[in-house]
Design goal:
The chain is of the alpha/beta class. A hairpin with a 3-residue loop joins strand 23 and strand 24. Helix 8 packs parallel to helix 9 and helix 12 packs parallel to helix 14. The model has no long low-confidence stretch (mean pLDDT 90). It binds S-adenosylmethionine (SAM) and iron/sulfur cluster (SF4). S-adenosylmethionine (SAM) binds next to strand 18.
Length: 492
């Protein structure tokens, strides 16, 4: 399968290491490791930026750290288990160094604050995703001998003014968060509880960040949000100056009435604005929601060569009754209609998805409908999960998690097998074509090969040629493929 960047298994638990800022250091070392989705990794960069400003340095070795943070994910139960085990290892380091501050950040903070902080005493500080600006104060509180907690969720916080420092990345691809939280209430999902209400970041700060990234040599940005299609920037209030997309420019105008506010920037406008930073900057985005993705967005993708022809459109289930129980607010026919629209407007578009197997009461026939949906779409890639009941969600309150583990596992296996066939098929269809590839670096296996992604997000490996280096685009003629990778030769 094609490795994906938005939830990258290989990055789970990765430590963030940055060059120190040219400032007086406080000679304290921060170790921060992250779990979960790209949004969490992007948040760790914000946390590091806030603390670097206060004189901290980062380290990749927790045994020499003065502050250890673990940025958590609670989307499935095994993610929580992983973090608990890690905290136990950090507790050992704390015995050796009693001044060490250990903290839990992110999505697990709210739910587990009582357990980690008070009962199990595994940590000194617990901080939710909207409270990172408070970290310097909270660390001070811990230094003063107290335990510290701030898990307040905000309706406004977007960290728009904080430019994340990305010195340990490859300098080519960057994630840019365009919104936070989620207002959908999918019955299986903890995100609305852990990350709060949906709010969009102002478009000017997004365009400014992307422009800055481009000027520093980055060539690809991925715009991040739980539901990017509901991105909406309306400005603050009547009488204020609000940014608006005028063609491809960001303009300012006086909002004289509520109607003026209604005309502001939607996701299609934002895509257009970011795509206009430079034709050399590739624009990706994730995640699209089937209920909200509009033809306007699809036409915008079609119109700009540098908006990648790749859409992640989670289906979750192919059966309308299960989708209703999941509270996804679309049914099978609606989802197929959106797929048809993508195929009609952008025929070359790659499509990936998320699938959950064994949701409450799912029958064998309903599971078959997920498989038949996969046959209908022929996804290029899929994330596939067994349903994992999360405390506090609507599903946990309303329905019994009644599908036995072995049935969930068997259904997952069937879905994974089907997806492998489809991924391979989609790659085989590209053999003989020429793909424009953004070179990311040497391939994992050999320094004689470069790797990079095609516009449609397929990994492409080809022999190094002297004329090109990472960060540049090359045309690669695809001559064969494995189950996960396209292989070819540079033709210019
Ligand atoms: N906002 C995105 C959307 O609407 O599809 C995805 C958010 S979630 C972080 C990523 C994926 O995790 C979901 O699409 C879903 O497939 C999976 N997921 C979420 N909660 C889950 C649960 N309780 N059990 C299993 N998988 C889950
Ligand atoms: Fe969770 Fe649904 Fe929101 Fe995605 S859209 S984050 S699955 S509630």
């Amino acid at each position: 399968m094609i490795p994906e960047k938005v939830h990258d298994e290989a990055r789970q638990g990765e430590a963030l290491v940055l060059e120190p800022l040219n400032k007086i250091t406080n000679s304290r070392k921060l170790y921060i490791e992250s779990y979960g989705c790209a949004m969490n990794f992007s948040d760790s960069e914000i946390v590091a930026s806030i603390l670097l400003e206060k004189g901290f340095e980062t380290t990749s070795d927790y045994t020499v750290a003065d502050v250890i943070f673990i940025n958590t994910c609670s989307i499935r139960e095994n993610a929580e288990q992983r973090v608990r085990n890690r905290l136990k290892e950090f507790a050992v380091a704390k015995v050796r160094n009693p001044g060490l501050v250990v903290g839990v950040l992110g999505c697990m903070a709210e739910r587990l604050k009582a357990k980690f902080l008070e009962e199990e005493k595994l940590v000194d500080v617990v901080v939710g995703p909207d409270a990172y600006r408070d970290l310097p104060n909270l660390i001070e509180q811990v230094d003063g001998g107290q335990r510290a907690v701030n898990v307040l969720l905000s309706r406004e916080e977007t960290y728009a003014d904080i430019s994340p420092v990305r010195l340990n990345s490859n300098g080519i691809n960057a994630f840019v968060s365009i919104m936070r939280g989620c207002d959908n209430m999918c019955s299986f999902c903890v995100v609305p509880f852990t990350r709060g209400r949906e709010r969009s970041r102002d478009p000017q700060s997004i365009v400014a960040e992307c422009t800055d990234l481009f000027n520093r040599g980055y060539r690809e940005v991925t715009l991040l949000g739980q539901n990017v299609d509901s991105y909406k920037w309306k400005g603050e209030e009547v009488g204020s100056q609000i940014p608006i997309a005028i063609g491809t420019e960001v303009g300012m105008f006086d909002a004289k009435s509520k109607e003026d506010l209604g005309e502001a920037v939607n996701f299609a406008n934002l895509l257009e604005m970011v795509a206009s930073v430079s034709p050399e900057l590739r624009v990706r985005f994730s995640t699209s929601h089937p209920k909200d993705i509009t033809d306007e967005v699809l036409h915008t993708i079609k119109k700009h060569d540098n908006i990648c022809k790749y859409i992640h459109l989670p289906v979750q289930s192919g059966n309308s009754r299960v989708l209703e129980l999941m509270n996804r607010t679309y049914d099978r026919a609606w989802y197929m209609n959106r797929i048809d629209a993508i195929r009609r407007i952008i025929p070359e578009c790659a499509i990936s998805t998320d699938v959950i197997t064994g949701f409450c009461t799912e029958t064998e026939e309903e599971h078959q409908e997920t498989l038949s949906m996969m046959d209908y779409v022929h996804y290029d890639f899929a994330y596939m999960f067994m349903y994992s009941e999360r405390p506090g969600t609507l599903a946990a309150k309303r329905y019994t998690d009644d599908i036995p583990d072995e049935v969930k596992r068997r259904r997952l296996k069937e879905i994974v097998a089907r997806q492998q066939q489809h991924s391979h098929l989609r790659l085989q269809q590209l053999v003989g074509t020429t793909q424009k590839v953004l070179i990311e670096g040497f391939s994992k296996k050999s320094n004689n090969d470069y790797c990079g992604r095609s516009d449609q997000n397929a990994m492409v490996v080809f022999p190094v040629t002297e004329n090109y280096k990472p960060g540049e685009y090359v045309n690669v003629l695809i001559d064969r493929c494995t189950t996960a990778t396209l292989l070819g030769q540079v033709i210019g």
